[in-house]
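Workshop exercise sheet. Pairs work together: one partner reads the sequence aloud, the other fills in the structure field after running the prediction. Swap roles for the next sheet.
Pair: D.N. / O.F.
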Amino acid sequence: MAARAAAGAWVLVLSLWGAVVGDRNITARIGKPLVLNCRGAPKKPPQQLEWKLNTGRTEAWKVLSPEGGSWDSVARVLPNGSLLLPAVGIQDEGTFRCQATSRNGKEMRSAYQVRVYQIPGKPEIVSPASELMPGVPNKVGTCVSEGGYPAGTLNWHSDGKLLIPDGKGVSVLEETTRHPQTGLFTLQSALMVTPAWGGAPHLTFSCSFSPGLPRRRALHTASIQLRVWEPVPPEVQVMIQPEGGKLVRGSTVTLTCETPAQSSLQIHWIKDGIPLHLAPSPVLLLSDVEFDDEGSYSCVATYPSHGPQESPAVRVVIGEAEEEPIAGEGLEADPQG
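Structure field:
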């Protein structure tokens, strides 16, 4: 009677879960039943077989009795010789072996390496920033994944591309904790980014959890879009050397367009309201100046986020070189001489 009841329970397990497996490497979900086949074992008693295991529950190899015992709640031998684990746990990770003798006396062995897993809830980004500022580190937010096993990894993405921490423009602070009772993991990953001046006005971020076992899909958070706020740039100015801008023909004048330290800016020059057809440069050098070089000069700095900004104009004045006076020149004759 007891044997028929046990057989009925085994059939029920198989019909519900389809958990009979024959592969040597097994992955089983935590809390679910698992059935391991004993190859070569007769389907009905009498049977000659032995199951032994070495897992997180044992200090060495543990031999299970087909007649049952104190381990029945953890693992028990079914009437057909298979081994049933009613609810797999983290401590059941390890090696399971069965040795059986068939009716014709042939000895066969089965060996399984069991690993367990638990899929965590969907990760989420907590405490996201409202906006970012260029040129300084900004905390985007913290990605959190709870209740997974093995630990797995968290990855950040920007505009669909994987972000790789470089310690400069992108850095990540990670923390992994484990629940003292369940053994499940909680992962946290805080992302810091330094947007470049003149970059995109909006950046999109997301986070994904990759399980610690192969052939398991990554889980993704919803994306967040953050505005990159750039303050209005300070006024562009032209510095002239020599100061004052008063020159003589044949001399040299240097005009320098002073802007915020942004290598991405395009600098163009204007004379008397007309753009000069020169390559972009923050410095305009006028050599061997002539009268046609005289005029008002300004520079235009083009910001990707704010557009062009023109400096106040400076005046370049060209004069003739002063000649040294000749002795006696310009003196009137003495009427008394």
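Discussion prompt: The radius of gyration is 41 Å. What would you look at next?
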